[in-house]
Amino acid sequence: MNSLVIGLNAYRESIRRKTLIAFLLFAMLVIGSSTFLTVLSPGEEVKMVKDVCLSCISFFGMLIAVFSAGALIPSEVDNRTIHTILSKPMKRITYLTGKYLGAQFTILLNVGLMAVLFLILLYLQSRRYVDETTPSFSVTALVASKAMMLVYFELLVLSALAFAVSTMSTSATLPVIAGIFIYIVGHSVNYLKNLSEHSSSELMSLIIRLFYLILPNFSNFYLRNQLIQNDPYVPQGIIKLFIYAVLYAGFGMLIAYILFRKKDV
Amino acid sequence: MNKWMERAVFGVIALAFVIPIALLQAKIDDDESKVGFLRWVDNQEAYSQQLLNKIIIETDERDPLEAALFEQIRTTGSSLNPDFGELPVSAKWRLVNRSEFDPFYLRFGELARQSKITLIEGGIEWANPDVSANVGALVLGFRKLVADMLWLKVDEYWHRGLVQRMLPMMETVTALDPHFIEAYALGAWHLAYNVTVMLHTAEERQRYIDQGISLLKKGIKNNPRSAKLYSEMGFTIYFRKLGDWEKAAYYLGEATKYDHEPWVERAYAISLERLRQEEKALAILQDYDKRHPDFKMQRFTMARLAKKLEARKLEREGQVEAAFKIWQFLKNDDPSDFVAPQEVLRLKDELSRMAGFSS
Fold first, then answer.
1. Residue B32 structural domain
2. A51 CB near a chain B CB, below 8 Å?
3. Which of B64, B99, B133 represents a domain boundary (last residue)?
4. Considering the entire predicted model, what is its pTM?
5. A53, A134, A178, B157: which could join B162 in a potential S-S bond, CB 3.0 to 4.6 Å?
6. What is the pLDDT of residue B1?
């Protein structure tokens, strides 16, 4: 219960932050303007809107996740409000869980707002370009919602790791940079898979493969691109990706707790 | 709790997260590879059909090991489900996940690593780690967006008349987004139509048409269940551009197996009509008419097909004169009829020969 109170408070604090509002407005602007790109791509209007919007939600979602999860604790340390909270009879894990929940509320709100605008655009496009093989808007909306969920799963992992870094930092700069770095690494981790398959030494191959399996792999969530383009070859579902994201979020929280439990604030 | 004990506890908890994460990652990879395997099975299915019909391909150019593997898969698949070749993705997925397919899947992986498999997008990472692999990673998951932006560039080059710059760009677009159906379809249309009108020699024109065909073939390979690509290949290239009714009918027939636009069935029936398979064409249109009673065009074609069948029946019964009259009527009725003028000529010869005999 205490976690929820802290979470709601952190959420209120986050949504007042000008950086996040600026990101959201900019994202909305890009999503909204994606409809103008359709003029340049006759025949590919809906695809263009889907790709631009999804990429935009993913990119700005990343920035929002990193800034909201990474700046919560350092800003409290900076404002010294953390002292008043931690001086109360409250476990540090409760405080951390609350803060992380607050970050998730903020990310969900932002992704949700972007998703609503995206769905409105999709609806308008589906009314403008109708042909026999185009699925109905309800089907498209369902698929788009699934794709958006995958974007959120990715942000869940990223925000947990940025949050973990933020617990040992006194300023928001380090967790933000670390978050962006984790994002880049998470998208490039497939290199390790190729490296392990083509490594000449068995031992080296095993070590690289272990790293590959343990490091956060954001390319798992590329499935959203296939989903949104109605690729028929998506039979595997997204349950495993959800479990993966939840496990990683739990792991991030564990690291955060290990780093924060005896931190002298 | 002492310091070491505490560390051990945290270590165990961390492992409780890390081990399932690693196992899950392995399972997700396995799923992705199996989807690649499924695409390959579908491609092989289509390839085998083409080989059987000898319409599209004359000789088997696959590695013998790849062909043998597919035959084993088909035999096993058919023993488990007689409709194995025609199954939708979800049903086929359940089937290929059964333990009977495990040895084939492992063998597929082995052959893919040895580059002995005709790979499609799902398996790029296995085959060519240096060039196309991880293109996705280079653009941090925004490969579709990058492909879209490059596609806008292709369009710009087209409007500026820079055809030579369009070609490598198209290749890049389809490498970045192998499921960009319109890129294949529009690209092939540009190559086969808009580029060829600028050229003067037949050889040059044919070269670009062939490039268009290759682009569509690549698209079909990456998207074996895309009706759009089959119909483009069948209608835009083989029917309209090359007048190869046999290949047109094959591709349009394939298109009708998947989620297609209604005109595809009409085009398929017309291709069959031009191949003189009036009975099959009429059956297709009758079925189409039941499903689309609000459309009118097919009824004219159906009436003409019924007349053609009547003419053929009369000819079989020896009433060549009556058959000739029907064909003559059909020829005058529709100047775009491809078969009627030929049949008129043929029956005219036949009648004059018969008149020669009788005199």
1. 3-133
2. yes
3. B133
4. 0.82
5. B157
6. 65
